[in-house]
Amino acid sequence: xxxxxxxxxxxxxxxxxxxxxxxxxxxxxxxxxxxxxxxxxxxxxxxxxxxxxxxxxxxxxxxxxxxxxxxxxxxxxxxxxxxxxxxxxxxxxxxxxxxxxxxxxxxxxxxxxxxxxxxxxxxxxxxxxxxxxxxxxxxxxxxxxxxxxxxxxxxxxxxxxxxxxxxxxxxxxxxxxxxxxxxxxxxxxxxxxxxxxxxxxxxxxxxxxxxxxxxxxxxxxxxxxxxxxxxxxxxxxxxxxxxxxxxxxxxxxxxxxxxxxxxxxxxxxxxxxxxxxxxxxxxxxxxxxxxxxxxxxxxxxxxxxxxxxxxxxxxxxxxxxxxxxxxxxxxxxxxxxxxxxxxxxxxxxxxxxxxxxxxxxxxxxxxxxxxxxxxxxxxxxxxxxxxxxxxxxxxxxxxxxxxxxxxxxxxxxxxxxxxxxxxxxxxxxxxxxxxxxx
Length: 438
Description:
With 438 residues, the chain is α/β, with parallel strands linked by helices. The protein contains 16 helices and 17 strands. The protein has helices at 40-46, 85-100, 103-119, 132-142, 163-177, 197-210, 222-232, 236-243, 260-269, 277-282, 290-296, 315-326, 337-343, 346-351, 385-391, 419-433; strands at residues 6-13, 22-23, 25-30, 33-39, 52-62, 64-69, 122-129, 145-152, 183-189, 214-218, 250-254, 272-275, 299-302, 369-373, 398-403, 406-410, 413-414.
């Protein structure tokens, strides 16, 4: 049998599917894919000439999936803090974007975000922002995996003049990126309060014809619900249901304010929810009823939102925060470690229709893998590696990140991103953006 390209031998393999940690196992990688998950001793006999990467104090898990981002907004980190959502958007973020957003802004900001995410064990992200082809350039350089949203709005921006212009440019970007081995695309109407019924109907038609997912903000704040009831006589979810948008290709970010009937409707229609606990709390939006959604059968993944509102692209902190918030009502068994790890991996992959390719350590899937160093004193003792991943580990423990079998990050060293260059470029943008600082 031909030897794989390399074999990873950690203390534990945490495959996610099935749950738990496997001690004394190894993962064989051939090309861009996982060839085998097997006991380490068996691997030594089966592949006698293989190259081994010994990770004796580590846990190996599938790469984390950040299922809701605005990556280029990393350049706006800390620009306007401690403000409610609509004030934050209308008085600070949208004016800054109107002045400065352009392909070079998106490329530079997305590269900064990619470097942060790879350093934190994120191997795939689901984005919603302008100039997707500029974002794709950064994704290519960083070597990360991404689903790039083809954003749509009713009002003009430096990217497009109106809703039809957004869609036309987005579909052209989709055509240009088709066949890319690490980039997929989806339709990304911003939110019900920025999209008309006419545009939603067009998006639904394109989604059905082209078999594309739809990614939008939904029920993030109470104000948007009040506004929708006043304008349409319906809550936003009811309006989307009436148009026909609720279905298994819909990814809804936030979903904070839901009735029991709305949760059941999302479950019945097979919609996905991307939980962003850090951003929801920081913007004062509230706490999403995640436990109830999971009980109803809704697939829930995790996202960070943009670094302008979070202010970190850190899925580890989102895991811990999600698990702790779920227990706030007095039930400590809510959202246990294994389940929150699934939200950050296979559930998020499922929302992106990538569960057959990423999200767990299984033969045939892309070798998107992360090694977490358990050797430090802050990680001792360890009785259960899955529990440690949810409650103890952070991005500072990530030692290696592989995407498609390629080592992209190892112990503070990026393989294709120069941190000094990123700092220089970021400083230039900071000088331009500081006039919008709150």
